Amino acid sequence: MISVHELTRHFRASGRNIVAVNKLSFQVRPGEVYGLLGPNGAGKTTTLRMILGLLAPTSGDAEVQGFRATIEPDEVKRRIGLVSASSGLYQWLTPREMLLFFADLYGVTASQASGRLQELTELFGLRPFLDQRCATLSTGQKQRVTLARALMHDPPVMLLDEPTRGLDVIGTHVVFEYIAKLRSLGKAVVVSTHRLDEASHVCDRMGLLHQGRLRHEGSFAKLQQSTGCDSLFNMFLQLLDESPSDESDSGREAADVG
Asked: What's the rounded mean pLDDT across residues 58-86?
């Protein structure tokens, strides 16, 4: 469903060549939740932008259902739903209006959009506030609308970029339930996060990204075996100890790399 082939991205900053993502390769199958894990600046958000076709790679490519992001970015976007902690809602629209608007943007027919709206309204409990202005909604209600919005065109692939950032325990639980639902629907899911404790609960496999490189990959049990560490936190401490001393080609530009 998702296939990333030696994806690489360089930036120029202050006369230096910065390698944000370095020959990154991984695959995600239908019904699988893949955790792209790493500290801030590891290259997670840059990777998601390249998969989406929003950022051209220096080399390598990403495929979604056989469509290459560098050649057919519009076809790739049609097949992806994005949930990001930085995305907002149109404050003067109601959830009903906004969800139907996004369905129209993706070319969903009116009859299909009506059915999707009803289905997602029940799934996320939107009915009590479906016709309120988004500006009047609570944080939790806005979160549920954001989650529903990403599914209006029923994409086979979901990208979740730091989906629990800024959320309390209840909000985080809603996201966990959402990810479980995506898995049950057969979606291929990539969750980008630095919340290591959460990743071990929701991801089937994980890729540990450090300084743009995939350093370890596998299930939690496989990672424990390959690293000799009992927790993801200790695995990353180990990676930090193994960091190359030459930072000239592996620095980070905070504005572009996550």
From this structure: 92
